[in-house]
């Protein structure tokens, strides 16, 4: 049953070109533009690493975030708006199956986007390999679970797909550019950097960037992401069960 729902979700997602465009192409295109400008020579503003090595982990996190803040909420809100979730419930389909399908689809799309970004970084921009591939993978998985749960929660409460799309874009771009997607944190006011650490984007970037740059696994960031996944996932499941 879950496999059938996943396949249906994938087919439906191909009918949402804006979501696919923003989710898969935007981080890759912006990464190419920025790393082409900064190169990859070590720079104190980037924490002692080059521009390519700084931005690729950040944009890996951005690919996870955009699916969680935009892709899933828009898709799920559309289901609620058009009565699809009610039909699922009438057929006896558990909300957990719908949540699992959304998570699997998100993870697959994010993996494609990240793979393309990393391949471009290695091929054309002298990207340095992660110091700890298992550590980066752990951060990626924890971030995907957390942002999928956040996306499910947003999609379960926002009334329409248009509302989910508007709020998702606002949240994503607001968090993205102050969490390292635009100017490096060293050039931002300290108050902004402290604020970012209190948002889901801060732990996500830290969980992926720290092991990539050889600073070891960031246990605090992983714990924050795990807590987000559990709390947001539980609230989303409860809300969807009542839908």
From TrEMBL:
Localization, UniProt: Membrane
Domain ABC-2 type transporter transmembrane, chain residue ranges per copy: 5-208
GO molecular function: ABC-type transporter activity
Protein name, entry field: ABC transporter permease
Database matches in InterPro entries: ABC2_TM, ABC_2_transport, Nod_factor_ABC_transporter
Lineage top rank: taxon: Bacteria
GO cellular component: ATP-binding cassette (ABC) transporter complex
Key words of the record: Membrane, Transmembrane, Transmembrane helix
TM region(s), chain numbering: 18-38, 58-79, 100-125, 131-155, 167-188, 219-236
Membrane topology value: Multi-pass membrane protein
First and last residue of the signal peptide: none
Keyword Aminoacyl-tRNA synthetase: no
Pfam families noted in UniProt: ABC2_membrane
């Amino acid at each position: 049953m879950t496999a059938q729902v996943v396949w249906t979700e994938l087919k439906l997602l191909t009918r949402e070109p804006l979501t696919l465009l923003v989710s898969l192409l935007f981080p890759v295109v912006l990464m190419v533009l920025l790393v082409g400008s900064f190169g990859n020579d070590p720079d104190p503003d980037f924490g002692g690493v080059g521009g390519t090595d700084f931005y690729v982990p950040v944009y890996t996190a951005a690919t996870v975030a955009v699916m969680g803040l935009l892709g899933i909420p828009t898709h799920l809100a559309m289901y609620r708006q058009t009565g699809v979730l009610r039909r699922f419930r009438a057929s006896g389909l558990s909300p957990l199956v719908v949540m699992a399908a959304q998570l699997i689809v998100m993870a697959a799309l994010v993996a494609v986007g990240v793979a393309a970004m990393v391949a471009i970084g290695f091929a054309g921009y002298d990207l340095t390999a992660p110091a700890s591939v298992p550590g980066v993978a752990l951060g990626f998985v924890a971030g995907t679970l957390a942002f999928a749960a956040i996306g499910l929660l947003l999609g379960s409460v926002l009334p329409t797909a248009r509302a989910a799309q508007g709020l998702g874009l606002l949240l994503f771009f607001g968090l993205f550019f102050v969490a390292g997607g635009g100017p490096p944190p060293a050039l931002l006011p300290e108050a902004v950097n402290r604020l970012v650490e209190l948002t889901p984007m801060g732990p996500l970037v830290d969980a992926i960037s720290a092991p990539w740059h050889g600073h070891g696994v960031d246990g605090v960031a992983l714990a924050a992401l795990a807590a987000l996944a559990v709390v947001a996932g539980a609230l989303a499941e409860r809300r969807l069960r009542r839908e």
